[in-house]
Write a structure and sequence with these properties.
Oligomer: single chain
Number of strands: 5
Order of helices and strands: EEEEHE
Largest sheet: 3 strands, antiparallel
Radius of gyration: 13 Å
Length: about 80
């Protein structure tokens, strides 16, 4: 498991380089030139990086779906 993909105490950490904040969303995306339909990659993102990472992918024409993570003890 890569350092950026780690999960600590049921908490997902942001995938952005050098960021150790808790993720608030998952960004599912794929590069249609190399990934077949139905296959996707997932990045986790904190509040500060969710928009940045989504914009990065959208500007490259990649299909993107953002899913909000439910917080422990909060509504699912």
């Amino acid at each position: 498991m890569a350092e950026r993909d780690r999960v600590l105490s049921d908490q997902v950490i942001c995938s952005r380089a050098q960021c150790s904040a808790l993720a608030v969303c998952l960004i599912h995306w794929r590069n249609p030139q190399i990934h077949p339909e139905g296959r996707h990659k997932t990045w986790a993102a904190c509040t500060d990086h969710c928009g940045f990472l989504t914009d990065y992918l959208v500007n490259r024409g990649f299909p993107v779906q953002v899913v909000e993570l439910s917080q422990p003890g909060g509504p699912a």
